[in-house]
């Protein structure tokens, strides 16, 4: 009979030891969709890459100089503003129409499971103004009226998905006395913005803080947790490094966080900052159309990729650069993490790196921290066949954290 060794700080689930990962080289993907971005997959030498990077940098500076000259009032053509204005108006109108369509679809997403026993629990949707006066589509699930709310969890979904996908998990939380809030990022779900486009992940942090203000205003003295999945996990982890946010939290939960993400080729990292300024909304058409499996449950995969609110198009340049940027920031600041946290990761995850989660656990200065590795599990842990086990582990960690705070 196998002898299973577990510690309170680190556990490996589903039998066996954590799978050995071959190096730390990860391919940049579009996060929630698991689409690989195989850009510039050539066999150029390092010297050639350096020369190309220098040439592109010089070209970028020249373009900036040229654009600056053309934007001077005395050099502008009278007809040019009209043409540009009409083109911008058409693009803006198309984007606004798409937002209206997505918001209508978001409102139609069920907020209660068909077989759920609600027991007086309530739920609903609402729209609030974000940090830049952009409309944020949000959801709330609350325990039964009159029952004590033990704590609140704010869910920050992953790249390309939306808050409505977390219904089953939300109902598990409310049945245990926890309130749940969730918001759609900018460019996601029912929120404003071009679908699948994130001009800055710092915008997501700022919008999350706006919702956090509302939550705490409506629920004074109720302990609050954050949960972030994948790129959402990177967003939550970075937010926890800001003292004015960290002091308001009991702890954070990270599922498959994008702590370490590397481009498919070194040249991508070199040119991404340039192209994210020149053509931020350009899409990498070469993305793998089939994508990487993110769940071992065929029904969960079908539901995800047939969901019209899940973005399945190629990743945009600025969005990809933002993922690389936040990953680099986190890797340089792991030792500054002091918030209580639990990180959960499947050892077979091919979208984000399980070894980076182990590194976070090792490097973080937090006194109360936990690492859960699930042998053979994939990226979307809360949509795996063992989703109820994952949820129970999260709720158990929240219970223990509240118990520690009460001592």
From TrEMBL:
Biased composition (Basic residues): 1-11
InterPro entries listed in its UniProt record: AB_hydrolase_1 (IPR000073), AB_hydrolase_fold (IPR029058), Hydrolase_4 (IPR022742), MAG_DAG_Lipase (IPR051044)
Domain Serine aminopeptidase S33: 148-386
Keywords: Membrane, Transmembrane, Transmembrane helix
Region (Disordered): 1-24, 73-100
Record-linked Pfam families: Hydrolase_4
Regions crossing the membrane: 48-68
A single cellular component GO annotation: Golgi apparatus
Record protein name field: Serine aminopeptidase S33 domain-containing protein
Record organism: Aegilops tauschii subsp. strangulata (Goatgrass)
């Amino acid at each position: 009979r196998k002898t299973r060794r577990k510690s309170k700080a680190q556990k490996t689930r589903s039998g066996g030891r954590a799978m050995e990962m071959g190096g730390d080289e990860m391919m940049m993907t579009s996060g929630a969709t698991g689409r690989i971005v195989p850009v510039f997959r050539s066999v150029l030498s390092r010297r050639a890459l350096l020369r190309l990077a220098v040439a592109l940098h010089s070209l970028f500076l020249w373009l900036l100089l040229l654009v600056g000259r053309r934007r001077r009032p005395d050099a502008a053509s009278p007809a040019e503003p009209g043409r540009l204005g009409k083109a911008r108006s058409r693009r803006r109108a198309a984007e606004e129409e798409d937002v209206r369509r997505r918001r209508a679809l978001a409102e139609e997403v069920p907020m209660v499971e068909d077989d759920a026993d609600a027991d007086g629990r309530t739920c609903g949707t609402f729209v609030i103004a974000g940090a830049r006066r952009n409309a944020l589509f949000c959801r709330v699930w609350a325990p039964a009226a009159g029952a004590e709310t033990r704590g609140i969890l704010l869910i920050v979904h992953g790249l390309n998905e939306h808050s409505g996908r977390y219904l089953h998990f939300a109902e598990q939380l409310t049945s245990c006395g926890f309130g749940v809030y969730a918001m759609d990022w900018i460019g996601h779900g029912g929120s404003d913005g071009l679908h699948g486009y994130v001009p800055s992940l710092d915008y997501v942090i700022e919008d999350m803080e706006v919702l956090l203000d509302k939550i705490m205003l409506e629920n004074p003295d109720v302990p609050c947790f954050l949960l972030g999945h994948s790129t959402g996990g990177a967003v939550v982890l970075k937010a926890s490094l800001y003292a004015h946010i960290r002091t308001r939290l009991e702890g954070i939960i990270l599922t498959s966080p994008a702590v370490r993400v590397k481009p498919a080729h070194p040249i991508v990292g070199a040119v991404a900052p340039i192209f994210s300024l020149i053509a931020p909304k350009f899409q990498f058409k070469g993305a793998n159309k089939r994508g990487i499996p993110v769940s071992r449950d065929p029904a969960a995969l079908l539901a995800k990729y047939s969901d019209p609110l899940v973005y399945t198009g190629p990743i945009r340049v600025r969005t990809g650069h933002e993922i690389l940027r936040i990953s680099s920031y986190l890797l340089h600041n792991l030792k500054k993490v002091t918030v209580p946290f639990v990180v959960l990761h499947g050892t077979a995850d091919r979208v984000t790196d399980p070894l980076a989660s182990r590194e976070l656990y090792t490097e973080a200065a937090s006194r109360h921290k936990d690492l859960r590795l699930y042998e053979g599990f994939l990226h979307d842990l809360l949509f795996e066949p063992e989703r109820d086990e994952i949820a129970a582990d999260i709720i158990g960690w929240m219970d223990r954290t509240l118990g520690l705070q009460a001592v």
